[in-house]
Design goal:
Length: 220
């Protein structure tokens, strides 16, 4: 489970996002980070049983993203993220395809999966796969259980115009216009704090798995 002290640390960080406070509370940060790593390790064990594409040698600490922000090109100069992000590639050891993503932030946590903002070559490959095998994707995203967990998949950000390679009357045009292919499920703080948290998140992730398979097959 995610410990309450981890949420407490993040809440305090929001109010004190500066280097002086962070250095004075470094021990608190390390405790929170270790909690997230331990949680990720438990989640990884279950995900590897669900998704054989996850590399067996993938380590939990490699999945937990840095809390330090890159502020070089940002107007927001606060040095730290106010969340812990956990990114688990669904194929191999590196990103560049579908993934599982856990976001831990007080009042704004979620589990997600799929492919967010694919690079141009991958976006074209996914669109081609949708054009050729759209029924396979629709079988996943139009399932009642999937919709209950993640909502309507087509209501993500779309292009305003039709992609140049396709016609407006294509039966899958709403999917072809998508910029990202993501399933998103919000989590309450209380859901992450309870004993069954890892199992419940793994259960939600099992419904993301077929989506990730479709997307990774497209960009293989």
């Amino acid at each position: 489970m995610i410990q309450r002290h981890t949420f407490d640390f993040l809440k305090e960080l929001v109010e004190n996002n500066n280097r002086e406070w962070f250095q004075a509370n470094k021990e608190h940060y390390e405790m929170a980070r270790e909690n997230v790593i331990d949680f990720t390790a438990e989640l990884l064990k279950l995900l590897k049983e669900i998704d054989p594409g996850i590399n067996e040698s993938l380590e939990a600490k490699k999945c937990v993203m840095r809390i330090y922000r890159d502020i070089r090109f940002s107007k927001n100069k606060t040095p730290y993220k106010n969340n812990f992000g956990v990114s688990i590639p669904a194929k191999g050891l590196k990103l560049g395809g579908a993934e599982y993503y856990l976001h831990i932030s007080p009042g704004n946590s979620f589990i997600a999966g799929g492919y967010w903002m694919p690079e141009t070559a991958h976006l074209k490959a996914v669109r081609q796969e949708i054009d050729y095998n759209g029924d396979e994707l629709k079988k996943v995203i139009d399932d009642a259980g999937f919709i209950k967990l993640f909502g309507e998949f087509r209501k993500q950000e779309q292009l305003k115009s039709v992609p140049r390679e396709y016609s407006a009357d294509n039966e899958n045009i709403e999917l072809l216009k998508l910029k990202s292919f993501v399933a998103f499920h919000p989590l309450k703080d209380e859901e992450l704090i309870k004993e069954e948290a890892v199992k419940e998140i793994a259960s939600v992730s099992s419904r993301i798995y077929p989506l990730n398979v479709f997307l990774n097959n497209a960009v293989a």
